[in-house]
């Protein structure tokens, strides 16, 4: 009932997850990211502990394959689960249980119209390396949707991106929408108006005070608007 993509932006080192489904509020269930260390998507019969515990294991230094093996070993319901993981080295580990609903495959997606959904998602992501990272992920998901997507239809989608901080650089969701990926595209455009400028002034581990000079934020917004006009 779901397909997703995990990627790391080579330009910024950010990890991102985009996901879509014919189910309510997929963004609350599927994506988990450990800043700078890796990302996990848990789907099919979702086990939230795959994300919660998997992130802890990534922080403890385990690689994607060891995280996957540890999570599966403790879950008697693993044959109904689907999970994919990317670690900081770019290594990928995935599992699709034998009881996941066809079409399923662990690039990763389940209950899809067919294999083309994942193939087109991956191909489009690779082909669009000139796009900003969020738009590249959304373009990939749009291609998967055009190839059939979730065979039951569409309802929710989410995009989450983390840089170096524990809080996300971007976290947008469409929990119940007739065109959830279209709504994410709209929200991403809205994020460019104010959020991206405010985000750069927020406290970080390297700069705990952040920047509280409103004139700096206003100047960044003005410069962005001038470039677009």
Quick rundown:
The protein is α+β, with helices and mostly antiparallel strands and 229 residues long.
Task: Give a structural overview.
By secondary structure, the protein is α+β, with helices and mostly antiparallel strands. It is built from 7 helices and 9 strands. The strands form 2 sheets. Strands 7-1-2-8-9 form a 5-stranded antiparallel beta sheet, with helices on one face. A 4-stranded antiparallel beta sheet has the order 3-4-5-6. It is globular and about 55 Å long. The termini are far apart. 43% of the residues are buried.
Secondary structural class: alpha+beta
The Rg value, from CA coordinates, equals 18 Å
Helix content: 25-40%
- Please provide the ordered H/E string of secondary-structure elements: EEEEHHEEEHHEEHHH
Give the terminus-to-terminus CA distance. 42 Å
Strand order of the largest sheet: 7-1-2-8-9
- Overall shape: it is globular
Poorly predicted regions = none
How many helix segments? 7
Q: Looking at the chains present, what oligomeric state does this protein adopt?
A: single chain
Mean pLDDT: 91
Instruction: State which percent range the strand residues make up.
Output: 15-25%
Q: In total, how many beta strands?
A: 9
Main sheet attributes: strand count, strand direction, barrel closure: 5 strands, antiparallel
